[in-house]
Amino acid sequence: MAPPKKSKKAKRESKKSKKCKSMSVGPIEPRATESDWWDSFWQKNSPIPGSAIPTDEAEGFKFFFRVSKKTFDYICSLVRQDLVSRPPSGLINIQGRLLSVEKQVAIALRRLASGESQVSVGAAFGVGQSTVSQVTWRFIEAVEERAKHHLRWPDFNRMEEIKSKFETSYGLSNCCGAIDASHIIMTLPTVQTSDDWCDQENNYSMFLQGVVDDEMRFLDIVTGWPGGMTVARLLKCTGFYRNCEAGERLNVNIRILSEGVEIREYVVGGVGYPLLPWLITPCEYNDISSSMSGFKPNHEAARSLAVRAFSQLKGTWRILSKVCCLLHNIIIDSKDKLQPDVALSSHHDPGYGQQCCKQIDPLGKAMRENIAKHLQHGKEKAPSN
Q1: Cα–Cα distance measured from residue 275 to residue 359, given in angstroms and rounded to the nearest whole number
Q2: Strand 262-263 to strand 175-185: parallel, antiparallel, or no bridges (unpaired)?
Q3: What predicted TM-score, i.e. pTM, was given to this entire model?
Q4: CB 182, CB 211: distance < 8 Å
Q5: Alpha-carbon torsion (232, 179, 136, 55), positive or negative
Q6: What is the DSSP string of 129-149?
Q7: pLDDT value at residue 257
Q8: In what order do the strands lie in the sheet with 205-212?
Q9: How far is 340 from 62, CA to CA, in rounded Å?
Q10: What mean pLDDT is predicted for residues 245-266?
């Protein structure tokens, strides 16, 4: 006797059940197919006599990707879900095998670190140009979403630690960081009819501004504003400026110094910035008072943290975006050593003349004088060797 036929309704339910089962299976990462990506890459790009590539394999890894293997694995863990769960078509190598998360991260880091063309990066990994493009942008989107906690304004306890380090190292009481800005050169003008994007050196560029702490970690960044602006104008276009002016930042803890004067929280910046109660710039060149002469080198040493941070950033990552500031912070947070040989040997904005802002807020000037007098008082009290 033949088995009874299933009704049409039963067949539909059976198909629906099978479909649901197939949909419930999560994405499977093809880790095994590309687990040997580093061996293949190192063999193809291993150093030859006279090359700048380190012969030590661990150092060679940092040379190509700017991070240690441990930090690389951490970055992979951050973006793994995004790079596995939305696999677009075409993410394959020349042999037709799907790319592992590790290889995708390596491709993106190499592209950002070297600035080489997509064709050159693709050839080094055995993938096509379009794959390098897709992988890099997917990686950038994933890091910007998953690594937000590595770039944020400090809470009260962390800020107290930062202020303590600035006072110990530079004698600047209640200082919360250093601010600077740098030009990012663009290949083509973003707005062809606007001169705002054409800067003082006739380059088409945009600004990247950042506030850093005592370890050169970025605490606040803003980018995307035209490079033809002045630094002072750039500052006033930012949320950081609006928050500070509204008392929502750099307004938590007022310090009462031994001389009885009050010092609010502030950051230090260069002569391109206005002198404000919460942004302390260098003294004018014609101010040769004893307190200001002692203040100037300490201020410059603290301010140079931001200059060095940008030099390190632009030397490490040749294609700059917000994600590179996140990667910069991840390296610091992971206790990875910043590569000393990749920092730009000159200023991070070579060829650009120094801007000078003449805006002086009276409260800012009084603040600077009180900081300078306190610094001088501390030096006078310090025992001589």
Answers
A1: 6
A2: unpaired
A3: 0.85
A4: no
A5: positive
A6: HHHHHHHHHHHHHHHHHH-GG
A7: 82
A8: 218-226, 205-212, 175-185, 266-268, 279-280
A9: 12
A10: 91
